[in-house]
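Reading a protein record of the kind used here takes only a little practice. Think of the row as the fold of the chain written in a discrete alphabet. With that in mind, consider the following protein and its fold in token form:
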Amino acid sequence: MILGLSVANFTLLHVIISLVGIVSGLVVLFGMFGAHRLPGWTALFLLTTILTSVTGFLFPGTTLTPARIFGIISLVILLPTVIGLYVFHLHGLWRWIYTGGAVIALYLNVFVLVVQSFAKIPFLQPLAPTQSEPPFLITEAVVLAIFVVFGILALVRFHPERKPA
């Protein structure tokens, strides 16, 4: 039992939170391309992305696993991201910190989605049973390349201060 839920139900809740974070993060990312702040979507993205990491720490186990390391990295990245948006209101370098942090946090969630897809989806499992095989590595490399391009686009285009009200 975790927070009064069976491990299966808690896992389902964790997955739903993660997927909401990814979908809302994609909405926020594409909004950045048009210099749109999208405050509601952004709040949902940041909240669910933080909750994804926090709920990940609640699973049984006391050892430091790759999943927990990703959770720590994500939370470390999200702290200045949230501060840049909500405390410093994207002024000066804080726009870059927020934008870069948001894109990296979204990428980390998508990276984990790919890992979990290859681990849990029956038709993907045989393609990369140890997740060191070419189909897995190529998929992760393509995802990384896409996020590098998207991150650069977001950094260049996200100037909400220039957008007319």
Q: What stands out?
A: The longest helix spans residues 93-120. Residues 7-162 form one domain. The chain has a mean pLDDT of 93. The two ends are 49 Å apart (CA to CA).
